[in-house]
Amino acid sequence: MNSPQTSGQPVPAGKTTHDLNKGVFWPSLIVIGVIVVLLLIFPKQGNLIINTTLHWIEYNLDWFFEFGNFGFLLFGLYMAFGKYGKVKLGDSLSKPEFSTLSWAAMMFCTGIGSSLIYWGVCEPLSYWSWPPFGLEPYSLEAADWGVPYVMFHWGIMGWVPSIIPGLAVGFAYHNRKNGSLAISQACVPLIGKANADGLLGKIIDILVIFGIMGAAATSLGVGVPQLTEAISQLFHIPITTTMQVAVLLVWVCIFGFSVYSGLYKGIKILSDINVYLAFFLLAAVIVLGPTVFILSNMTNGFGLMLQNFVRMCFYTDAIGGSGFPQEWTIFFYAWWICYGPLIGIFLARVSKGRTFREVVLCCILFASLGCWLVTGIFGSYAINLQITDTVDLLTIYAEQGGAAAMVATINALPAAQFFLVVFIVLQFIFMATTLDSAAFVMACNCTKNLKGDQQPNRSLRVIWACMLGALGLGVLLIGTLKAVQSTSIVGSVPIFFVWIILIFSLLRWLKTTYGTGSIDMDHPSPPDKEVA
């Protein structure tokens, strides 16, 4: 395995551009600011309107999201194993800027934040009390489906929405040299250059930024309670608003400095550290926990997930009416689509020298494998703690919440204080990696004329980092995080249609570049002269 360092020719890390796209930057700030202010002034009304809209989307567009996301999967597989599989992002001489490990680690850590370990424990507990397929709550059969479903939600179907912008924006930036990582500019073949530069393009890019902000706010909503609970347990101090604000401010300082340092020194280093710490904690849970049970239950869960994959993809429970697929699967589908711009644009930027096949497989195999390991290990460990009466996690989860259940799971390990420290450090870095990637991508989306290895202006990156921190602080103080999260999910519907535009735009560009015949796989990069 390659060492986690950049490969190929050295790339200057300090090159930035100051070419701000004011038509995207200022409206994005204004829209986000107005929404936060309205939620501050009218929190109850805002919550009611947004949650009503969210409920309508989940229960009336479930079929739409399920068919659409499965279609994204088929498109990704076609891009990987069809005639365009060896098309390279960049020219034929382009070499990857990062080693395979660093490249995959950055993409993985960008997408999961601090949510993965949390849901790895809490989802199986939730499904035990609210199981799918009409199973009896709290039964052994219900417990059996905890790990398969969390693997499903955090596996292949979660990552496929990121493939669309990853390939389309990457091809537009590295191959077509359009000088922008904005989603709108990758839509040019279908909507035209004038529309991409005009009002329609600005609306698309504002929607992208809005979705990223909401998705990041969701991760903050999961991350802050986890860390404050862990710190409270470690130092035996009560959880207060001041403590939560302090945790958030430390986070802002970490990811603000990281995004200021840039792609090569900041985000890459945090991602590498993250992967090593995560492997260490996973290994500790396997070795110090019920090793045989964890490995056995993971295997059983993985098999159930594969065996029922198509059923889970299209499960709506229209007759039973339990609401399980709507409240869980459709919610996760919409959330992953909102995260798609963040992961996809970042993936496009760091994937120069990689083929379409590598990009797709990195998403649906490497990223899914990482999620399967984390959710399988922690989910199985949590289930074992419950069925052996070691820790009553179901009661803790029901009465004290997911953060308390997560920390109780860590506390059940030998040398619990040490692993709480590891957990706290890991979660700090996990979230910092996601948020600085979010600030970096939003800055990219507001910048024109990016070329080669250029990065957005540092001040712009820091501004978005501060905006993320301000949003997190605001919703923490006023308690309207649920409304911000729901707003982002509502925003997934128009983003969904943007992804359809991206698909047809990419196909048109590929057809224009390579023609309708077969492609010479020994020379996969575009020829000097395009086919008319």
What does this protein look like?
It contains 23 helices and two strands. It has helices at 22-41, 43-60, 62-81, 100-112, 115-129, 140-144, 146-153, 156-175, 188-191, 193-197, 199-235, 241-261, 263-288, 291-307, 309-313, 324-350, 356-387, 393-400, 402-411, 416-445, 458-478, 481-490, 492-514, and strands at 16-17, 455-456. It has a two-stranded parallel ribbon with strand order 1-2. Helix 3 packs parallel to helix 16 (324-350) and helix 16 crosses helix 23. The longest helix has 37 residues, at 199-235. It starts with 15 loop residues before the first strand and ends in an 18-residue tail after the last helix.
Distance between the termini: 42 Å
Unreliable spans are 1-14, 527-532
Tally of DSSP β-strands: 2
The main sheet comes to:
2 strands, parallel
- Please, what is the oligomeric state? single chain
Share in helix: over 70%
Q: How many helices does DSSP assign? A: 23
Structural class: mainly alpha
Shape: globular
- Record the strand order, biggest sheet: 1-2
| Radius of gyration from the alpha-carbon trace, in angstroms | 22 Å
